[in-house]
Amino acid sequence: MDKMDGKLRNYDRVIFNNSCLELCLAQLKYPPVQRFFDDNYMVDIKEALASMQGIGQAPGPNMLRFTSIDSRWSVVLSSEFVSLETRTYTNVSELSTRFANVLHHINTHFSPRHQLRFGLRYINEFRHPSGDSYKAWMDFLNPELLGLVARGVLGGKVEQTIGEVLTHRDDGRLLVRHGFLKGSTIIPNPGRPATIEQMLRYNDVLYNVFRWSIGDGELYRYLKGDL
Fold first, then answer.
1. What is the pLDDT of residue 1?
2. Phi/psi at 70 (5° precision)
């Protein structure tokens, strides 16, 4: 664990029946593949990604998208990055296993000399039947997350907030956006090998940030499906 995680509690894993997940994205960025637009060169990796559990190819102008039959998963491939996207998954083991398969195909067919970036991003959108004003959300979210606005320093009725925190960690950078910009992401330090173990560590940190944000009150119980 990063030495700067000391004040962030480790939370037990919970399955949220009323999920607030809008998007989860795992991405590896690598040096440009010069032969990406060579159809003969790309045949094997196209077939490999298209064969992953029923994933079918949908071509784009500068990238390829392979979407599962149930539309739960997408692999986006370009000359400079590959990403795995989902809006719903069972647990982090399912996510990491799928991304490990994607990385295996990248290593087999592209053999990138090194990585430029390896990142994991979550975008969450909280909804609650009583969440029709910012004042209501002050009771649902951790007041430490809300900061200045929660203390009422500025007065008036809050119509919009945009917050962003970027911290440097031993294993990369942690970026948390909240307010009308939703989500959090870890951007690792360049040059470190992309591993699934690393991805799982990032997931632990992001989950703890998420759980810290919602606390253990009404919003937590609502997302669990207890209310």
1. 42
2. -85, 5
Q: What is the mean pLDDT of each run of 10 residues along the chain (227 residues)?
A: 63 90 94 94 93 74 88 94 94 94 96 91 89 81 75 69 85 83 63 77 91 92 89
pLDDT at 129: 87
The total domain count for the chain is 1
Residue at token pair 């609502």: 222
C-alpha R_g of the chain: 20
Q: What is the pLDDT of residue 111?
A: 93
CB atoms within 10 A of CB 105: 20
213: helix, strand or coil: helix
Chain position carrying tokens 């209501």 = 136
DSSP state string for 161-198 = -EEEEEEEETTEEEEEEEESS-EEEEEEPTTSPP-HHH
Q: What are phi and psi of 175, to 5 degrees?
A: -115, 125
93 in a structural domain? yes
Question: What are the tokens at 194?
Answer: 């992309």
Give the pTM.
0.83
- Residue range of the domain that includes 114: 16-224
**Which CATH number is 217's domain given?**
3.30.590
The residue with tokens 């400079």 is: 80
